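Example record

Each entry pairs one chain with its bound ligand, adenosine-5'-triphosphate.
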Amino acid sequence: MRLEFRHVSKVFGSKAAVDNVSLSIEGAGFIGVIGRSGAGKSTLLRMINRLGDASSGQILFDDADILALSGRDKRDWQARCAMVFQQFNLVPRMDVASNVLHGLLGRRSTLSTLFNLWSEADIRRALGILDRLGIAEQAAKRAEALSGGQQQRVAIARALMQDPAIILADEPIASLDPMNAQVVMDALKRIQVEDGRMVIANLHTLDTARRYCDRVIGMRDGRVVFDGRPDQLTTGVARDIYGADASFSEAATSTEIGALGDDQEYAAAMLGD
Ligand SMILES: Nc1ncnc2c1ncn2[C@@H]1O[C@H](COP(=O)(O)OP(=O)(O)OP(=O)(O)O)[C@@H](O)[C@H]1O
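Structure tokens for the complex follow.
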């Protein structure tokens, strides 16, 4: 499994949100993308599963040009790289199990989806995935009745239903309190390791990147300014990535319980300021 960016750019008006990025990711692993707000992290991720198209360059997966895919091929690709969002994107009034089964949407007919005609095997699989994520007992509840951390685990379960090679997680813990953030990151990491999947996650905070990632990509103004192991992510390097001056403090990008002084500082960290 190999994902490769070749001189990829994405321009909005006169601004390059992603600016000439070239990199390759080989095999399973947990890749974190960090950088301040507006650095281009979401744009980069969204181009991989074609939620947003690149303005120029190539993205290859096992040598197939994924930017050239259309119709059925594009939908198949989108099923192979499932996306998890900051706001979970569940159907709030629908029960948890049905939300998970909707991960199969791209793979079955509209008619059977419309009438909720799931096979017994699919239902068993959905329940098995929920069990694996520790939320099987929530299966019959409406998604909106769950806590944020539980909802994000439902979103991860929905992604797993697609049996994706890649899981793309766009700020998966930015809406969660530190305790739930840890539960969700632990779940993502376990899935990545046990199943041998590739996870690429945009993360706001350095400590999370250091703790969970095998490799960290630092973006600033649309460019990759760091690409290395978490232990190479020194305070000086982080300062460069975040474009901060000498007053930059690690705590300002931390989600550690108790690491932050007050709510205001916490909010600033979440905004990447
Ligand atoms: N649809 C769009 N139209 C115009 N500009 C956009 C659009 N999407 C993103 N941008 C711009 O591209 C740049 C990169 O945005 P992006 O959302 O990728 O950054 P980010 O690093 O993910 O930030 P955040 O952490 O706040 O989500 C920003 O300047 C943003 O304003």
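Residues 84 and 156 are 6 Å apart (CA to CA).
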